[in-house]
Amino acid sequence: MSRSDGRAQLSRWIGRRGAWQRVFIFLGSLAITWLPIAALLRWLGYTYGYSGTTEILALVLLYTGFLWGLPRWGKQIHQWPQPLSRYGLFWNVQTARQLLTALAIGLLGVFALFGIETLLGWATPATPSPKFAQFVLEGLLMALAVGFAEEALFRGWLLTELEKNYRSTAALAMDAAFFAATHFIKPWAEIVRTFPQFLGLVILGMALVWARRSSQPGKCGKGKDGEMGCGLGYPIGLHAGLIWGYYIVNVGGLSEYTGRVPEWVTGIDKNPLAGLMGLILLGAIASQFAKTAQPKTQLDFSSKR
Fold first, then answer.
1. pLDDT in tens, 285-298
2. How far apart (Å, rounded) are the C-alpha atoms in residues 187 and 5?
3. CA 89 to chain centre
4. Which residue from 13, 211, 25 is spatially nearest to 109, judged by alpha carbons?
5. Are 99 and 211 within 8 A, CB to CB?
6. Please, which residues have CB within 8 angstroms of residue 197's CB and are 6 or more apart in sequence?
7. Integer CA distances (angstroms), 115 to 135, 210, 251, in order
8. pTM recorded for the entire structure
């Protein structure tokens, strides 16, 4: 058997595995390739005093590997002619409009949250930082970068893999839980102390799944293979908007908590989405996207609803 026949046979075998088996095969393959490089960079960083720079470089290389592997995975494992369109990674006017709309929703939602807390006396306006304009710009760039990176992973690739094997509600719940769990790898004492953050991440994960499914039929975008699917404009925009709003208010120094209510109400570690008020905000946003969400992100996955 030739090498190409062996690869084709392995691809077919992986394609017949369950969703979570495929997920961990992909992630495991990525880790095996990346770990030796990361170890070398870590050694160089500590040896020559550039540990911070090399750690960032290692993460950039890890994500670059993920993006490089995505289209190859879709073509070889699923035989999709245009796999990136399946994962929602396409760009058109509709996607741009959805991104800007959701960006505004997230940003204004955070501002509204602090406005309500100010009216209730739980927060007070503060003098902005002298570098406020700089923080606004760098906050936007950072928020868009994080929004794209996490949404391509969780609501692009992972959700699409889950939807091939699970019903709509199960895929949503597993995607949201996995999203929260990967952000909550920390010592047990910190898990207990910051538990509201986990609940907030689960609700945010659900909101982002519904956001991706919220494009109306026929308006999501069509790949060259003729398959219709929802893009990532809404989830990237919403994710980025929430991060941007938090960055402007906290790093920009627009508001300070008064301490009149416990941290679990306004947000643990000054994270507005890690408290009761933040959970209410996320729940409100999630419920609105849920009203317009389609059963799944891909029309050809409709066999399991």
1. 999 999 988 888 86
2. 46
3. 13
4. 211
5. no
6. 183, 184, 268, 271, 273, 274
7. 20, 26, 17
8. 0.90
